[in-house]
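Figure 3 (text version): structure tokens given as input.
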């Protein structure tokens, strides 16, 4: 039960971070927002390590984290690139469902087999992610858009798997590796593209929320993955579009289509079944 609760909380916090990052990128370049938000997350990361450090890190633990951070950062760049093409109604659900399916498949192959209700809950979560992520309108799908969506989802799915494979005795140290990998790639991209890291005041406020939310979500998911089966906690953690949609509805007064409402209900069903 506790791993499911932690995974669900991670999804809520990830959704808040995604919403905040999305608001920041409305007025500033995505690369600058991503790098600065991750820099802003370092104090929160230090607190997480201090609370659940569990001794000194091993090269293996940091290695898992670094690889996960690099893959996750690549996924972010692909996500922003794909969404900028204007086909959000196609890109978002394809990438989100792929994100959930990758760890679900890996978990079933290498991890312990969950109960039938829990597995049904994971399946409901995957469908809910696709429904909630749908956006009205948008450009038509093209092979390029579908390829970018699958690649972004694959990166995020692999991130879930790598973070879950770091080991139960790793504490929060894998997150240090994640930040080393993602910030290393981010600063390299900034240098190569000569991107300015100066944000306007509005974007900066959203960015300093997005970064800490990302670390907290990662920490919650890591704790869930320590004690729960990957095939269940990863799809539940991947429900982050739910809180993003709810925030868009409440804060931005965006219109929610019927498919998204159905997805919200199915997400609740997924949580109940996964906790059985």
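Below: residues designed for each position.
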């Amino acid at each position: 039960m506790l791993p499911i609760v932690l995974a669900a909380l991670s999804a809520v916090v990830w959704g808040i971070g995604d919403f905040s990052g999305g608001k920041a990128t409305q007025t500033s370049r995505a690369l600058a927002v991503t790098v600065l938000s991750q820099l802003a997350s370092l104090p929160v990361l230090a607190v997480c390590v201090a609370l659940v450090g569990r001794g000194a890190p091993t090269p293996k633990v940091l290695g898992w984290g670094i690889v996960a951070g690099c893959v996750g950062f690549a996924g972010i760049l692909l996500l922003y690139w794909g969404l900028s093409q204007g086909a959000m109604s196609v890109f978002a659900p394809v990438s989100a469902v792929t994100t959930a399916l990758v760890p679900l498949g890996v978990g079933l192959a290498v991890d312990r087999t969950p109960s039938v209700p829990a597995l049904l809950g994971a399946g409901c979560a995957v469908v809910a992610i696709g429904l909630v992520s749908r956006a009205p309108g948008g450009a038509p799908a093209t092979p390029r858009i579908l390829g970018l969506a699958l690649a972004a989802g694959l990166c995020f799915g692999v991130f879930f798997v790598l973070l879950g494979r770091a080991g139960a005795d790793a504490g929060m140290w894998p997150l240090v590796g994640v930040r080393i990998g993602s910030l290393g790639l981010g600063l390299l991209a900034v240098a190569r593209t000569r991107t300015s890291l100066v944000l306007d005041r509005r974007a900066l406020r959203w960015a300093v929320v997005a970064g800490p939310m990302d670390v907290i979500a990662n920490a919650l998911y890591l704790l869930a993955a320590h004690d729960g089966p990957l095939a269940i906690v990863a799809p539940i953690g991947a429900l982050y579009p739910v809180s993003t949609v709810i925030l868009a509805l409440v804060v931005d007064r965006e219109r929610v289509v019927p498919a998204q409402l159905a997805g919200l209900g199915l997400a609740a069903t997924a949580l109940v079944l996964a906790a059985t």
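Residues 2-274 form one domain.
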